[in-house]
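Exam prep: given the inputs below (a chain plus uridine-5'-diphosphate), describe the expected output before reading on.
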Amino acid sequence: MKRFLVTGGSGFIGSHLCEKLISENHRVICIDNLITGNLRNISHLRDNSNFTFLRQDVTEYIDLDEDIDCILHFASPASPIDYLELPIQTLKVGSLGTHKALGLAKAKGSSFLLASSSEVYGDPLVHPQREDYWGNVNPIGPRGVYDEAKRFSEALTMAYHRVHGIKTRIVRIFNTFGPRMRKNDGRVVPAFISQALSGEPLTIFGDGSQTRSFCYITDLVEGIVKLTNSEICEPVNLGNPNEISITDFARLILSLTGSKSEIIFKPLPVDDPKVRKPDISRAKQELGWEPSVELEEGLKKTIEWFSQDLGLGTSD
Ligand code: UDP
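Solution:
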């Protein structure tokens, strides 16, 4: 049994991670200020004596009595509309929050894993993206608050590794989807599924030729656990390299839901990346990891979850 602290543990990815660690009989302390996380995501874990939830902002001093073996730093607004609405919180959690979480790792002698993002590559000029690509980021654009927060977090993580000898890991997470995404978080998967299920038009931004590569949540969580148990200090891309245009993705959602919704076009957000696809050679070679859930299979499970959730009327 290991003792984990998960920041952002009641968010989409954080809650799946807490669930996985609890299922493996680890001790898990989940910290979240709930600005984008939701207690519903961890309600099924709260009776477990190995699980503790602390409502706290990770940018403030973290005072913990117990020992911790590993800190998983996942706290951050993470969807484009969230970080457009919460630009200062996004920059603070990436800078001050990462500093506090690394400071706690140093004080407790624990290892540390940073949830970074494919956004560090910005609107990439290299395709697919390998970890040694430095990216193409507009620091003063609206997405810059998230991209630069993650780039700063990576720099600080490496500094703590080099100066204090902390065992650090960095995962660069590409588009991930699954149950517990917020209906209104603005990302393409919950947007298209909820629009299709309620008969509203699917909103394609731009001409729909931009591409993304979607990874199912269980594959991602498995990769993160492998990285946690590895000795790799360099960043590791985790994502599914199966690339699809947003237009084809909209058609796929219509066909899987059987929806008669029409497709409409809206302006492309500023600095929206034109392409995105991970090169996962490092994860394959060094972790023995690759995703196994096909896009359609993952989408069917996600659509099922959204249809129940929308039916209950409890989604935000
Ligand atoms: N997108 C879209 N319609 C929507 C939401 C998103 O066409 O209702 C597009 C968005 O412009 C981007 C892609 O889908 O090109 C993926 O967007 P998302 O917000 O999921 O995340 P991103 O990959 O941009 O971080």
